Known about the structure:
The protein is 29% helix and 34% strand. The protein is of the alpha+beta class. The protein has a five-stranded mixed beta sheet with strand order 1-5-2-3-4, with helices on both faces. Strand 2 and strand 3 form a beta hairpin. The chain has a single domain, classed as Protein of unknown function (DUF1491) (hypothetical protein tt1805, 3-Layer(aba) Sandwich). The N and C termini lie far apart (33 Å). It is built from three helices and five strands. The protein is globular and about 40 Å long.
Amino acid sequence: MDDRLPAHLEIAGLIRIVDAAGGFATVIEKGERDAGTILIICCENGTNSRLYERMPQLDGTRKWTLIRSENPENKQEFSEYCARRKRQDDDLWILELDVPNCEQLIGIER
Length: 110
């Protein structure tokens, strides 16, 4: 049995945490309700976007890992990457969290 929290509950929790911190959260793409993969875009005032995905580790845990950073010289490349990932996986959730210290909210120390 999988002990993961259903994706829609994790998304709802992250939105509430960001709201309580005075930030803004929005679902960019809605995926499979229970078992969809979640990508999180962390940014501050809509800039400096970083994309995280929970990746399996050798010890069996799953850790948030930076998989993409926005290039200020080519911001469209970041959006295109997210769109390509969604086309490849209909179950994928993409959540944008716009709040200072976003990584801290998902358990990453910067």
